[in-house]
Design a protein that fits this description.
The protein is of the alpha/beta class. The chain contains eight helices and eleven strands.
């Protein structure tokens, strides 16, 4: 009986130490991903084994670049990128040009990893990264990625409409197709930029919003797709 009570107490503590968010966009993204042939996915968040295991069922090639960690570390763009979560200062020190080079070189390094050319990206998981980037940094990140996107490729991102956000991006974990989990947040916060869809699309030329969902916690989930170059020129 005592063991059972202790177990329930531990479970309640675990619940308090993590946050659960229902997601409306992720099922749409996963349904689309399941219809792609050997998709290539780029995760711009911290590496998490549960996400790797979950996405592996789609037969995708998954690559991870913890972009915020690279910025916070102020890492020179020529060094090898790490897929681990950073515990250094959360204030990005790298400039927009460095950010563009980080992503461009990460993609070039991946493409040069074997004798056969690597397929373009089908899906980019940006999570809540944009809340932590200035407009010029968002533009630079997209310049580093855009040439690697397949026409019709999807971008999944969240932006916050609440007053403050955690000091660093949440390390989101896919619990199942309809819920995301992240660990307890530090009490320190920073102001949310509250980017609108129009503001983001201005920084992401060649992307258009396919669907968006406003969640009860004040975050908006956005699914955007890469328009074919001819369509971009025509627009």
């Amino acid at each position: 009986m005592r063991l059972s009570l202790r177990r329930r107490e531990r479970e309640r503590d675990d619940e308090r130490e993590r946050n659960v968010q229902a997601t409306l966009a992720l099922p749409v993204v996963l349904d689309w991903l399941g219809r792609q042939h050997h998709p290539r996915v780029l995760d711009l968040g911290g590496a998490h084994g549960d996400n790797v295991a979950f996405l592996s069922r789609f037969g995708c090639r998954l690559e991870i670049v913890d972009l915020f960690a690279q910025l916070a570390e102020g890492q020179p763009s020529g060094e090898t990128l790490s897929a681990t979560h950073s515990h250094t200062s959360p204030r990005p020190r790298a400039g927009a040009r460095d950010l563009e080079q980080i992503l461009a070189q990460a993609m070039a390094s991946s493409d040069a990893g074997g004798p056969d050319p690597v397929e373009p990206l089908d899906l980019v998981l940006a999570w809540d990264l944009f809340d932590y980037l200035a407009p010029a940094q968002i533009e630079a990140a997209y310049r580093g990625l855009s040439r690697h996107l397949r026409p019709g490729a999807r971008l999944f991102a969240q932006v916050s409409y609440v007053g403050n956000v955690p000091l660093r991006p949440r390390r989101l974990r896919i619990a199942d197709a309809r819920s995301l989990v992240w660990d307890a947040e530090a009490p320190r916060v920073r102001p949310s930029p509250r980017y609108t869809e129009r503001q983001l699309l201005k920084r992401l030329p060649g992307m258009r919003v396919e669907q968006s969902f406003l969640l009860r916690n004040g975050y908006r989930e956005i699914i955007a797709s890469a328009v074919a170059p001819a369509a971009v020129e025509a627009g």
